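re: that chain from earlier
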Amino acid sequence: MIDIYILRLPHDDPKKATGARLLRRGIAKDARKTRPRSPIVLNPKANTLISLKDRRILEKNGLLAVDASWRRIDEVKWPRGVQRVLPFLIAANPINYGKPFKLSTAEAIAAALYILGFPDIAEKVLCEFKWGLEFLRINQGRLDSYSKAKDPKRMRELEISAIKSLRGQ
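^ sequence. v structure.
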């Protein structure tokens, strides 16, 4: 089983925060209580794209997402670990629907799991939300493509290609 950790910050209403729901449902563990060692940390400000090269880290140390408001993202003190950013994806959550890169915590976790070869666990995470499978539907092609990227360089090439195809270039 893959360990999923959430560091919950009190920026959002806990009833609406997707990370809070995953904690309540027992899908994720509270990072403050568990203190994971060197997990993959999903960080939108990281320099390195997640790729299959990170799968062993995921299997050994788990995945950590910070559940915080996008409006206050610059205030976040990112926990230690292997900092990774997700490639271009489009949000399906009701707050940021259709916006590129503005994923909810649950969407980010699911995307990382899918890309690293765990689509079943990704789907389990997303099924906790009415809109969850919509995220897979609108990003299916990109996620399938990204899940074949063996390293960050190839991931960047696929990301650029995905953005260009969306722009019609």
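The radius of gyration is 15 Å.
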